[in-house]
Amino acid sequence: RFIVLAGLGYSRFEDRITGEVETSADSRLGLIYKPTPTTSLYASYATGFNPNFSAFDADGAVLPGEELRQYEAGVKAEFGSNLLLTAAVFDIEQKGQAVTDPASLDLPPAEQYSIALGKTRTRGFDAQLIGKLGPSVRLIAGYAYLDASLLEDGPDLDNDGNRLGGIPKHSGSLFAVYEFGGALDGLAVGGGIFAQSRVPIGFENVSFYDAWAQLDATVNYKVDRWKLQLNVKNLT
After folding, report:
1. What digits encode the pLDDT tens for the residues 178-234?
2. Largest alpha-carbon pair distance within the chain?
């Protein structure tokens, strides 16, 4: 009923153009508990590292790499053969994330430079439900809540506590597919909606993109191992 995963890793990153080298030692630990054959409860911890070789400061120096730490817990469960539920809560902390320096926004894009944020945190919850309504209709529904904020700002800035740019607090989708039978066996049509709340354009939180929703549709035909599919996005 219990599965344990533990790992240690060492990485060396080298940019052969600039000669920059970064090294990292990372770890991960996970525990899975299966109270039933079709239900899994899990918890995990992991650290990570990403180099910022493509991010340069105002003096042309490469920014230090980005450090990552993540906690996550969740559940995956099957209810019969027609319903699958996955859900998770998580806490992700990043240090040294590279973003465009606000002081360079008036410059042409090719001349803009970057700064490293001190520390950011994303806490949230996401869930997905995949199921069948009878023999012909499949449903896929999902929802995510993301509280992404700036804990410690970079130098010469004053944005502590602000939301991170481009990340919606709420987003979700609902998609349905109808599979025909009889003379139309193999044909399926579907449609759905994706929506998200407004997002800040930058971490200064001065301006925002409005909330929006998008309607999509699909039709496909399957024969043996072959499937031909046409997707149409943003019908409106």
Report:
1. 999 888 999 999 999 999 999 998 778 889 999 999 999 999 999 999 999 999 999
2. 69
By CB atoms closer than 10 A (0-12, 13-18, 19+), residue 104 is: middle
Region label for 118, one of left (φ > 0), alpha (ψ between -120 and 50) or beta (otherwise): alpha
**Once rounded to an integer, what is the mean pLDDT over residues 159-184?**
90
Rounded to 5 degrees, what are φ and ψ at 192? -175, 180
The pTM for the full model equals 0.81
Residues with Cβ within 8 Å of 158's Cβ and at least 6 positions away in sequence, in order, are: none
3-class DSSP state of 13: strand
Confidence of residue 153 (pLDDT cuts 50, 70, 90): low
In terms of C-beta density within 10 A (0-12 exposed, 13-18 middle, 19 or more buried), how is residue 211 classed?
A: middle
The Cα 139–Cα 97 span in angstroms is: 37
**One-letter amino acid identity for 45?**
Y
Q: Is 98 exposed, middle or buried (0-12, 13-18, 19+ CB in 10 A)?
A: buried
Name the DSSP class of 182.
G
